């Protein structure tokens, strides 16, 4: 069956042109499971008006900044006709969409926290390696190992003296405002 035989069906190129996107965009959304076009006997993708409406919804959501995961959640929910012949999500659908999106935000927050912890660990490791690199470079430049080790130990002691102990830090956080105990 060709698009000429069934004027209601469009090829990828025609559908993409009508939606003002690339054929690759339509194929990508299909790969993501957002749209499932019919296939001709020759296995060509064919899009009907419902597919085009679905693509238009996806493109509107993307233009509003929604993620593909968020769009997938919204597309699972049915639209209901309202006054003026327009379709809208029901209150129940909106509640379900909200809950699904909130779960995704929570999961992203957890990933962000994990990434921050990892970043801090990497920064600490970099600082240690930088100290080691400095030591090796200075040794190669002919400085005395004993003098360098003494400088390094002195620097560590100064740093440790500037950093409050974890017990002292916890106590200072618990102090009440206005507590100026002498």
What would you note in describing this structure?
This is HTH merR-type domain-containing protein. The protein is mostly helical and 182 residues long. It has a domain at 1-64: Orthogonal Bundle (Multidrug-efflux Transporter Regulator, Chain: A, Domain 2). 64% of the residues lie in helices and 5% in strands. The chain is built from seven helices and four strands, in the order H-H-E-E-H-H-E-E-H-H-H. A two-stranded antiparallel sheet has the order 1-2. It has a two-stranded antiparallel sheet with strand order 3-4. Helix 1 (12-19) crosses helix 2 (23-31) and helix 4 (68-75) packs antiparallel against helix 5. It is elongated, with a radius of gyration of 31 Å. The termini are far apart. Residues 1-5 and 176-182 have low confidence and may be disordered.
Overview in brief:
The chain is mainly alpha-helical. Helices cover 64% and strands 5% of the residues.
> What is the helix fraction of residues, given as a range?
55-70%
Mean pLDDT metric: 82
Alpha carbon gap, first and last residue: 90 Å
Q: Determine the oligomeric state from the structure.
A: single chain
Count the DSSP helices.
Answer: 7
Order of helices and strands: HHEEHHEEHHH
Radius of gyration equals 31 Å
> How many DSSP-defined strands?
4
- Beta fraction: 5-15%
InterPro entries: DNA-bd_dom_put_sf, MerR-type_HTH_dom, MerR_fam
Organism: Paraburkholderia gardini
Keywords: Coiled coil, DNA-binding
Region (Disordered): 155-182
């Amino acid at each position: 069956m060709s698009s000429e035989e069934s004027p209601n069906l469009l090829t990828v190129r025609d559908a993409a042109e009508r939606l003002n996107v690339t054929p690759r965009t339509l194929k990508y959304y299909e790969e993501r499971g957002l749209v499932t076009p019919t296939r001709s006997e020759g296995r060509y993708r064919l899009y009907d008006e419902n597919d085009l409406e679905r693509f238009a919804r996806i493109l509107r959501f993307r233009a509003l900044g929604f993620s593909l995961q968020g769009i997938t959640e919204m597309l699972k929910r049915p639209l209901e006709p309202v006054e003026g012949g327009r379709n809208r999500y029901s209150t129940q659908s909106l509640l379900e969409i909200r809950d699904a999106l909130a779960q995704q935000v929570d999961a992203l927050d957890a990933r962000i926290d994990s990434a921050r912890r990892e970043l801090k660990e990497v920064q600490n490791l970099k600082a240690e390696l930088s100290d080691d690199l400095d030591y090796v470079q200075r040794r190669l430049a002919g400085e005395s190992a004993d003098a360098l080790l003494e400088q390094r130990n002195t620097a560590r002691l100064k740093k440790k003296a500037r950093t409050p102990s974890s017990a002292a830090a916890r106590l200072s956080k618990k102090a009440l405002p206005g507590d100026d105990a002498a």
